[in-house]
Amino acid sequence: MNREDGTKRIQFSLTVSEGKWLIAYAISRMENVQNALKNGKIIFKGGTTVSCVAELLTGTPLRICGRISSRGAVSSAIRSGAAHSLLYSKGQSVGIDEDYEDRLLGMGPEDIIITGANIIDAYGNAAMLAGSPAGNHCGRGMSAMAVEGAQVIVAAGLEKLIPGNVSDSIKNSRRKGVDDSRGMACGLFPVTGEVVTELDAIRMISGAAAVLIGKGGVFGGEGGCLFQVWGLEGEIGRLGQALGMCYGKGISGATESLAECSFPCAGCREHLSCCYKRVML
Q: Which range has the worst mean pLDDT, 43-47, 116-120, 133-137, 262-266?
């Protein structure tokens, strides 16, 4: 394609947080999501990318539990009153942390479950970390997500992309039997659904073609991505409008849940092998 074809080419970068918002914007505009918003039910399973989607569609950020920070795999310092998992139905939002599994059983083919992932691969596979026994209610509810017929969307940025196959990581990781860990030791469980990355989001929003040409960065760009996109002027214009809403946006999540755990805290009784439990001399 060239300029004689009426195409336009742009290059831009996205920080990890900006990429999360772009993914969220694309998911929020999906036809099946809009249909469920009007006629069905949507479950938002807590995570920073899914919290972006929840903010866009319901105005409600989610409670963030586990996360990977510079200190390793850690959790929130306190259990805030915000919902980690949220059900939206008929214009109403309700937290479902206490009956998450039962609510999943009530989902059908016209309904949507939006979840995140900690790793994805080039084959469309995804997995989520489990630092609590059996992955807490999310891990225990994963079979219901897979078998009851609801449409599952996996919102995951390209910073989650790993070399090789996700199944190898699942088979060779575990929560128990880790000798030492910065933060909680974690296993993995598979997440099955339609994976949406920044590349998918660009195509969904604009219809333009896109390639990833760089990853990583410094001075705030760590983990970010560099893209080139080409398409008709209208396609590039639609993408530009979406990018304008994402640039400069930070992490999504209930504010009080963003503070990290430190020893001692409520999660210590469940988290294994954490070096922060030891007395540091």
A: 133-137
User: Which of 106-118 are b and which e, b meaning 16 or more Cβ less than 10 Å from the residue's Cβ?
Assistant: ebeeebbbbbbbb
Lowest mean pLDDT segment, chosen from 18-27, 230-239, 257-266: 257-266
| Size of the chain, expressed as the number of residues it contains | 281
CA distances from residue 63 to 8, 46, 70, 230, 256 in whole angstroms, order as listed: 41, 6, 20, 37, 8
C-alpha span between 203 and 198 (Å, rounded): 9
pLDDT in tens, 171-222: 999 999 999 999 999 999 999 999 999 999 999 999 999 999 999 999 999 9
